[in-house]
Write a structure and sequence with these properties.
Blueprint (H helix, E strand, L loop, with lengths): L22 H8 L9 H28 L11 H30 L1 H21 L2 H28 L9 H29 L2 H22 L16 H23 L8 H22 L5 H24 L5 H8 L4 E2 L2 E2 L8 H20 L6 H17 L14 H28 L6 H22 L9 H20 L1 H7 L5
Antiparallel strand pairs: 1-2
Protein name: POT family proton-dependent oligopeptide transporter
Membrane topology: Multi-pass membrane protein
Keywords: Cell membrane, Membrane, Transmembrane, Transmembrane helix, Transport
Length: about 500
């Protein structure tokens, strides 16, 4: 689970537009009612916290709901197919961030997209809670994926509008916003996991819907206090072109529905389709940027320098996002979750990572600040993140072949600590690197490329999980662990040429 890409400070606008001095913006510069921050931050903090509560709460029980038998309250979907669906869904969330950013930039502005996205997310959780069968699952996941992508793409931008360009509280404000993300991610699986194990899956999905409703209710009352800049449409789509784009969007939906009805898009190949679509989109983005006549030689070189980082990032997320696929299956079938006479619900494992993130993110920030210009360069951080992630997979090997309920809980806690350390080497610098290396005319597209690398890795995580066999784990963890280590080692060897391509960016 990566929370860091939600709050990168470099990619968001700051202050009011040129020449604007709205009363709201001026008040925001001096308001200190929310822990020394503008009071309007409390509303975005709240909607983001509850959105993460609902998102990770639902994610914690989603895979179990799919592959548990009908008698156990699930849908009885084949386990390999179910893990592929989870990966495809996760990839679709990150793909949707590109759509959410486009709608904000061309049609509605970030604040409105955030508000409407929260409504769509809540509707998705309601569908999962109330609609039976696979159709309820499909409708719910599509709505949550589209809504989460829209909210994820725009919440950060809205927070950025609360601060003037010279406001020294800005970084602290984003840190507080980031705390809200992790609080939601921590409590979501605890609540939904307890409800699922006590009274059933649909109660867990219902709790996710209630959580999103609470966030939406708070935000509905507070959104008027946000500065006018949050509602500005930076690059409005001309009215005479809106019908054309609406037709393209509707046509796309019709094609997808037709492919589903024709059996071309199926549950068992969904992850593969998302992988191909994401890969095609990434190649197209790279081609458009590199072929442009409007970028300088230095800018083109930096885009080439981003390619090795993109590849390593895909490899990292392909392993890291298996927290929601393989690790869920492992926790259900292999982990000893007994504490005395009480058995911990499986989804509670997903609450371990946010605790480590909250504790260690400040430690890492202090280390990088203390090292200053002596801290590792971006390619070195990416390489170390991939190597450490590979080592985390190898740490499963001592417990391979132990049978049901044989892996100690402390072992998984230790492995997840290594997951978190790997994440802190690579995730906080991902969006930052994309913005630093972006040509002036393609700032948004480079950010989109970063999200595409996460989408691609997440979809691959679901596709890979079909090869996990609890009866023969050694090949799976060994091969994937060594591939990640090899990717990181290759980037370490290539640090100098990559830095040369990056033309002064570290």
């Amino acid at each position: 689970m990566s929370m860091h890409d939600d709050h990168d400070a470099e990619q968001v606008p700051v202050g009011p537009p040129d020449g604007a001095t709205t009363a709201t913006a001026e008040a925001g510069d001096h308001d200190t009612r929310f822990f020394g921050q503008p009071w309007a931050l409390a509303h975005v903090f709240g909607v983001e916290m509850w959105e993460r509560f609902s998102f990770y709460g639902m994610q914690g029980i989603l895979l179990l709901y799919m592959y548990y038998t009908v008698a156990e309250g699930g849908l009885g979907i084949d386990q390999a197919v179910a893990t592929g669906i989870v990966g495809a869904y996760g990839g679709a969330v990150y793909l949707s961030t590109i759509l959410g950013a486009w709608v904000a930039d061309r049609l509605l502005g970030s604040e409105r997209v955030l508000f409407y996205s929260a409504i769509v997310i809540m509707a998705g959780h309601v569908a999962l809670a109330l609609l039976p069968s696979v159709w309820g699952l499909g409708i719910g996941l599509v709505l949550v994926a589209v809504g989460s992508g829209g909210l994820k793409a725009n919440a950060t931008s809205v927070v950025g509008t609360l601060y003037g360009a010279k406001d020294t509280r800005r970084d602290a404000g984003f840190s507080l916003f980031y705390l809200g993300i992790n609080l939601g991610a921590f409590f979501g699986p605890l609540v939904t996991g307890w409800l699922q194990s006590s009274v059933g899956f649909h109660w867990g999905f219902g709790a996710a819907a209630v959580g999103m409703a609470l966030g939406l209710l708070q935000y509905s009352f507070g959104r008027k206090q946000l500065p006018e800049q949050a509602r500005i449409v930076p690059n409005p789509l001309p009215r005479d072109r809106r019908v054309l784009f609406a037709g393209i969007g509707l046509g796309g939906v019709v094609v997808v529905v037709a492919l589903v009805l024709a059996g071309v898009i199926r549950a068992d190949n969904l992850a593969g389709i998302v992988i191909l679509v994401t890969l095609a989109a990434a190649i197209a983005y790279f081609f458009v940027i590199l072929a442009s006549r409007h970028i300088s030689g230095d800018e083109r070189s930096r885009v080439f320098g981003f390619i090795p980082l993109f590849i390593v990032n895909v490899g990292f997320w392909s392993l890291y996002q298996q927290q929601f696929t393989v690790l869920t299956v492992y926790s259900d079938q292999r982990l000893d979750r007994m504490i005395g006479d009480w058995e911990m619900p499986v989804p509670w494992i997903n609450s371990i990572n946010p605790i480590f993130i909250i504790i260690l993110s400040g430690v890492f920030a202090a280390i990088w600040t203390r090292l200053g210009s002596r801290q590792p360069s971006t390619p070195v951080k990416f390489a170390l993140g991939a190597i450490i992630m590979g080592c985390a997979f190898l740490l499963f090997l001592p417990f391979a072949g132990g049978g049901p309920n044989s892996t100690p809980l402390l072992a998984i806690i230790g492995i997840l600590l290594v997951f978190t350390i790997a994440e802190l080497f690579i995730s906080p610098v991902g969006l930052s690197a994309s913005t630093k290396l972006a040509p002036e005319r393609f700032h948004t597209q480079m950010v989109a490329l970063y999200f595409l690398s996460v989408a691609l890795g997440t979809a691959i995580a679901g596709w890979l999980a079909q090869f996990y066999d609890p009866e023969n784990e050694v090949p799976y963890f060994t091969v994937l662990g060594l591939i990640a280590i090899a990717l990181g080692a290759a980037l370490l060897v290539a640090v100098r040429p990559v830095l040369k391509l990056m033309r002064g960016v570290r």
